[in-house]
Design brief:
Helices cover 57% and strands 14% of the residues. The chain is α/β, with parallel strands linked by helices. The strands form two sheets. Strands 2-1-3-6-7 form a five-stranded parallel beta sheet, with helices on both faces. A two-stranded antiparallel sheet has the order 4-5.
């Protein structure tokens, strides 16, 4: 029994943050197959995650960027600030070429897409735990390209936006109404309006027309980069 206790004590503790129960179940199953890793807790939103991480102090937090009524990127920033010994690895279905750079700037050890297989996911986990940054080859190439060719359009400085602000910004660029944006993000219309105001302030935009124009340009640039 003593040897078993020592073995368990050496397992690296992982905390899961995702608002989909089935995803958390799948991740628990993946980690259960790793003899040196163990899931110590989980949460579906930022508030519960901060409480859990503060109490359990895990070695690694797997954080979904799109959380219902909360922001995974802001969670990563909070964890990096409050609990620097807890590493964060971002998980998302969104564009990795954009979000990989954003999450690392926020304090994460990397980004892995939900479209990847289990082997790639575990590679990302191992790299993060080893003190390395994990990016896919595509994301790394995109980041290197942006460094070599910095954009000159003020409207494309989207790294100044929070995760939720970027979601609103992209939705504006597709012509989605404020009401539809609120419904899709599970937030109030007034909250969407607040995000719109913040976006205009951060990007130096004067009015709703400039916001729409820049959002359209941003979406078109992302489509062009994806095609390239």
């Amino acid at each position: 029994m003593a040897n078993l206790a020592v073995k368990r004590a050496r397992r690296t503790r992982v905390y899961l943050v995702d608002d989909h129960p089935l995803i958390r179940l799948s991740l628990r199953d993946i980690f259960s197959r790793e003899p040196d890793l163990a899931v110590c807790g989980e949460a579906a939103d930022v508030r519960a995650a901060l409480e859990g991480i503060g109490e359990l102090r895990p070695d690694l937090a797997i954080v979904d960027l799109k959380l219902k009524e909360s922001d995974g990127l802001e969670l990563i920033k909070e964890v990096a600030s409050r609990y620097p010994r807890t590493l964060c690895l971002a998980l998302s279905m969104h564009d990795e070429a954009l979000h990989a750079e954003r999450v690392v700037r926020a304090g994460a050890c990397g980004f892995v897409s939900k479209h990847e297989d289990v082997a790639t996911f575990m590679k990302a986990v191992r790299k993060a735990l080893g003190g390395e940054i994990y990016w896919s080859e595509r994301a790394a190439a995109e980041v290197a390209s942006r460094v070599a060719r910095p954009t000159r359009s003020k409207g494309l400085r989207a790294d100044a936006l929070s995760e939720r602000e970027l979601q609103v910004f992209e939705s504006v660029g597709t012509g989605t109404s404020t009401t539809e944006i609120a419904r899709s993000l599970h937030i109030d219309v007034s909250t969407v309006e607040t995000y719109r105001a913040r976006i205009k302030e951060k990007l130096g935009l004067k009015n709703a027309t400039e916001l729409l124009q820049e959002a359209i340009r941003w979406n078109m640039s992302r489509m062009a980069q994806a095609a390239y």
